Amino acid sequence: MKILALNCGSSSIKYKLFDVDRNYQVLAKGIAERIGQKSSSICQTIENKPEYRIEKYLPDHRAAMQALHQALAENKSGLSGDIGKVDGVGHRIVHGGERFRNPALINEEVLEQIKESAMFAPLHCQPNVTGVEVSRELLPDVPHVAVFDTAAHQTLEPKAFLYALPIEYYEKYKIRKYGFHGINHSYVANEAARILTKPLNDLKVITCHLGSGCSITAFEQGRSIDTSMGLTPLEGLVMGSRCGDLDPSIVLYLIEVIGLQVEQVRDLLNRKSGLLGLCGHNDMRDITEMAEKGDKRAQIAIEIFVYRTQKYIGAYAAALNGVDVIVFTGGIGENSPSIRARIMGNFGYLGAYIDQAKNKNNETMLSSDDSVVRLMNIPANEEMLIAQHAYTIITQSVKNKGKI
Ligand code: ADP
Description:
This protein has helices spanning 61-74, 108-118, 122-138, 158-161, 168-171, 182-195, 249-256, 262-271, 274-279, 284-292, 296-320, 330-335, 337-344, 356-360, 382-401, and strands at residues 2-8, 13-19, 25-33, 41-46, 52-55, 88-93, 104-105, 144-148, 205-210, 214-220, 223-227, 325-329, 374-377. The protein is an alpha/beta fold. Helix 1 packs across helix 3, helix 2 (108-118) runs antiparallel to helix 3 (122-138) and helix 11 crosses helix 13 (337-344). The structure holds adenosine-5'-diphosphate (ADP). Adenosine-5'-diphosphate is lined by residues 211-213, 240, 283-285, 288, 330-332, 335-336.
């Protein structure tokens, strides 16, 4: 069975095509980038062959989806040139609200519910909905499965997910912490346990997803018990262009005193803040280089990024009453020895020590031999989990109904 995993963002679509029968071997992977801009392109790698780029104007997600399907078909990626041979599609869906604790086979009803949940975070969810709609049109005869970024955090208890607002705002309007990046947090927590050959149920794990978006999750007995993002992916850590935690009164001040419109505030908090707002750049590679050359704004941006991350790790170690494993993942978490070393510099009191040589080489095990807490580097692989979930749902549904 061949499963296509799709991760549809606002200006990009990442995809991987897996052969389930060959132990989830990746037949092809790629990204359609800068959708809507003149410089858009598709970059694809077919099984062990060099990456190649197709420069092509992709005015919208529909065009991007068509182009990636064509790229897959043309390259005979185990599909004999026929995209119709994809047996199922797994979609990353950012917000599943309280309704979706598990992946779901997409039908009209499920799609309507996904659209309802998207109301909480339209900026992040609209591209997902478009992705599902276009993809169902292009591949109408295969099952499509929604895999939710919020689902793994539906295990949070009320003490972790309720905000201290009047309770009716939760009861009536479902305003609460949902948490995101759940697909990858679950994936790396399970990978950590697998690599350590221990059941995840027996480990206290803190997973730090540090990419363009950043979040931290605490796992106990195999379940997410707290996570840093909230109703939307705006709460928590300092991110590429998102502010993370703020005094909510700042929003009122921006509107009432500075005179910004609601839409301008949304844009400010999501697209102009974070590292970008603090130092004018959102790519940690550039910021690190600037800081090394003495740029004061870049230095303070990194300090704030590191400090906020440390505070959350400390808070989650307290929530867990100890920690066995801290995992780094995401573009920064996987690739930046200097940021990891700075973050871990403050946890000697927990018995957590980084090995500078292993850290410099981006090894999987980053902790020194005498470290009580295992520090690990595990690459994000959301598409793998999406494909695994899609396969499970599709085979269950075949068993249950005799057909899909
Ligand atoms: P996305 O959320 O878009 O998938 P990624 O997980 O790819 O984001 O992370 C993007 C971030 O990772 C960017 O800030 C980028 O600068 C950073 N990054 C990638 N490689 C490195 C590196 N070698 N050193 C520092 N930061 C890096």
